[in-house]
Specification:
This protein is mainly β. It is 9% helix and 19% strand. Pfam families: LRR_1, LRR_8, LRRNT_2.
């Protein structure tokens, strides 16, 4: 049955919850006087002892003096047998928290260790270890826990091949192994799933299944399957022969996003007319939006984002009036959004962003009374922002929580009409031409959490009332024309602020007392071109968790205090360039940026002097150019030789460095850009220069280098730009090397 559109929660949610109904039965069978068996108590204590980390202290109640283990955190016992039947030790944070929340709470809360003691919990029915970091292969012995009905090992740091023993869990109804963090799991076939005939929920997203050509055959044969998620699995196309025997009679949710499917798969999908949730985003579909979707009238969730559809939006799409979520982002859709969009009366989230659309019948949106999220970013509306807000008035403005109008060619002044959106949480108006002051009406939007007004033409002052937006977490207000003095009053009550990006407002100055303690802990700070000086900002010493810091061109005339280098070891971007910072840099701390990042440090265009510091191994970009560093390059490049290096970009130009280029470049194999020009370097190029196999750009002009070029330089086959300055007679043979490698060189 399809629920009425006025209900906020759609049927696709109920279908995904259906497989959990059996949990209610188990929970209702539990009573407070259940007593844990001694053998299982000991097994649980061994399990706790085998954990090498439990930083979140989830197992504090697990102790030999802790009484009945059925009362311990994360455990549920059966009241009849007194056996442990549920173990819930999932990470209470999710991976996104590490980029949105200072302190990397997800990573810090991940437990690790051995799982072998779980073998003694013979009656276990529910096991959730998701979000931890156990490492190694998924233990095959989990396949002997034959009573399991729920197994969640998602994002738990496992790697290697999925053990086939999991196929012995014939009572399993829920299986979640998805891995969006490392994608280190793989499987060459899915035959081990064939016996799991009771399975209702299956999520293998992020697991490499490129060799599992039987994926369609096996999942198609699972008779009870309601939810199938195979996002980012590198799946093979569905064999044409297999499409003749499509089953999936119970399937309600299908997620095939982040694969490489093309239009041929539609002939299968269009037979699944009972689907309520379909995600085909990030594939290789092209051409017209497929007409077969018009028959999938039960859909409440549809995502076709990030494909190559290039048609207009057909009117029949607006006839799918049970849709609650529609995402057509990032295609090449043409034309306008027609007035028929007003027929989507059940819609909760609507996104047409980043297409080639050139207008929208905005007045048809005002009666979408259930709409909570609206994203029209990239649509060429070419209107006054006041007219747009007027078109969105009505019952829409009463419910709307997130409004995205990024890069919509909007102009005019942001008027007080914004005040009608009382429930607004997220407001994104960046990359337009909106001018005038920031209106006072924003102060009435007490629920605002994220505001992006950057890259417009706002002028006037930085509003003092911003400090009263107690829910504010993210503020982007950079690249405008704001001016005036900002004080601690402007931030007085925004204790939840995590990101402040206000760079590119050179008329702003921050004037706070020397002992000011900010009420927030920021993960990202960007105040480039503000006047923060002349003293180094002392309030930064209280920001312990920043990952991004840009205070370049901020009028600082001071030394870097010692406490600064002890602030944060998890940053991935630090920019103090274009100030007048003087003194020495004795040490650059080891950094531990988020997974997938190498840190970037820019101290260029200052008055720094002395020897180069030792460079940590996980710095990816280092720019110390245009300073007064002197002495050898060896302290920077030849320390910690045994550690693997991440450095890709090294700019040391325009200093007073002397001596030879040290012969330890083999420790830095990832360098692709090196600029050493305008120093006093001497001697010949070291043979280890040839170990830089990724080198694309090398600048050596205006030094005192001499000697014979090492033959190993011919290994730099990717070299695109070479700047040697004036070519001395001793280096004439380099022309032949250049010609052999088709390099674009500069000999001046």
């Amino acid at each position: 049955m399809i629920m009425d559109g006025s209900k906020k929660v759609g049927t696709y949610v109920f279908l995904e919850l259906f497989y959990l109904c059996f949990l209610v039965i188990s929970i209702c069978n539990v009573i407070s006087d259940a007593a844990c068996l001694e053998s299982e108590t000991q097994a649980l204590l061994r399990f706790k002892q085998d954990l090498t980390t439990d930083s979140s202290d989830r197992l504090a109640s697990w102790s030999s003096s802790g009484g009945n283990c059925c009362d311990w955190t994360g455990l549920v016992c059966d009241n009849v047998t007194d056996r442990v039947i549920e173990l819930r030790l999932r990470n209470l944070h999710n991976p996104d928290d590490d980029t949105a929340v200072p302190g990397k709470p997800f990573e810090r809360s991940r437990s690790s260790g051995r799982l072998v003691s779980l073998l003694d919990l013979k009656q276990l029915q529910y096991l959730d270890l998701s979000g931890n970091n156990f490492g190694g292969q998924i233990p095959g012995f989990l396949g002997s826990l034959h009573n399991l009905r729920y197994l969640n090992l998602s994002n738990s740091g496992f790697e290697g091949s999925i053990p086939p023993q999991l196929g012995n869990l014939t009572n399993l109804q829920y299986l979640d192994l998805h891995d969006i963090l490392s994608s280190s799991l793989y499987k060459e076939n899915l035959q081990w799933l064939a016996n799991l005939t009771k399975l209702k929920f299956l999520d293998l997203s992020g697991i490499t299944l490129s060799k599992a050509s039987d994926w369609f055959e096996v999942t198609n044969a699972l008779p009870s399957l309601i939810v199938l998620r195979l996002s980012n699995c590198d799946l093979d196309p569905v064999p044409v022969q297999a499409l003749k025997n499509v089953n999936f009679s119970s399937l309600g949710t299908l997620d095939l996003s982040y694969n490489t499917f093309s239009n041929s798969v539609f002939s299968w999908i269009f037979t699944l007319t009972s689907l309520v949730s379909l995600d085909l985003g990030y594939n290789s579909f092209r051409g017209h939006l497929p007409g077969g979707l018009r028959n999938m009238t039960s859909l409440t969730y549809l995502s076709l984002s990030n494909n190559q559809f290039n048609s207009s939006i057909p009117d029949w799409l607006y006839g799918l009036n049970h849709l609650q979520y529609l995402n057509l982002n990032s295609n090449n859709l043409q034309g306008k959004i027609s007035k028929d969009v007003g027929n989507l009366t059940s819609i909760i989230s609507l996104s047409f962003a980043d297409n080639n659309l050139r207008g929208a019948a905005l007045e048809s949106l005002r009666n979408l009374c259930s709409l909570i999220t609206l994203d029209l970013s990239g649509i060429r509306l070419s209107q006054d922002i006041s007219d747009v807000l007027e078109s969105l008035s009505g019952c829409l403005s009463d419910r709307l929580e997130s409004l995205f109008l990024v890069n919509c060619q909007l102009s005019g002044h942001l008027s007080n009409q914004l005040g009608q959106f009382k429930n607004l949480h997220d407001l994104y108006l960046t990359k337009n031409s909106i001018s005038g002051p920031i209106p006072d009406s924003l102060r009435t939007l007490a629920s605002l959490r994220q505001v992006d007004l950057s890259k417009n033409r706002f002028n006037g002052s930085f509003p003092e009332w911003l400090g009263q937006l107690r829910e504010l977490e993210v503020l982007w207000i950079g690249e405008n024309m704001l001016e005036g003095v900002v004080s601690e009053v402007h931030f007085s009550n925004i204790t939840r602020l995590k990101l402040l990006q206000a760079s590119g407002n050179p008329g702003l100055s921050l004037k706070v007392s020397p002992d000011w303690v900010p009420p927030f802990q920021l993960g990202a700070i960007a105040l480039s071109t503000w006047n923060l000086g002349p003293r180094f900002p002392g309030w930064l010493r209280f920001q312990k968790d920043f990952m991004f810091l840009d205070i370049s061109a901020a009028g600082i005339i001071d030394t870097i205090p010692d406490w600064f280098w002890n602030l944060s070891s998890q940053f991935f971007y630090m920019n103090l360039s274009h100030n007048q910072i003087r003194g020495k840099v004795a040490e650059i701390i080891n950094t531990y940026p988020p997974a997938g990042y190498a840190s970037s440090i820019d101290l260029s265009s200052n008055f720094l002097q002395g020897s180069l510091p030792c460079l940590p191994s996980n710095v990816g970009t280092l720019d110390l150019s245009n300073n007064s560093f002197s002495g050898s390059m060896s302290p920077l490049l030849c320390c910690k030789m045994e550690e693997p290096k991440s450095l890709g970009t090294l700019h040391l130009n325009d200093n007073y460095l002397s001596g030879p280029i040290p012969d330890c470049l083999m420790s830095w194999p990832n360098i692709f850009s090196m600029n050493l020009k305008n120093n006093n370097l001497s001697g010949s190029l070291p043979s280890s220069m040839g170990s830089l196999s990724f080198l694309q750009s090398l600048h050596l002009r205006k030094n005192n280098l001499s000697g014979v070029l090492p033959p190993s330089l011919q290994n730099c086959s990717l070299l695109l730009a070479l700047d040697l300055g004036v070519l001395p007679p001793s280096l004439q043979d380099w022309r032949e090397v250049v010609e052999n490698h088709d390099c674009r060189s500069s000999f001046k």
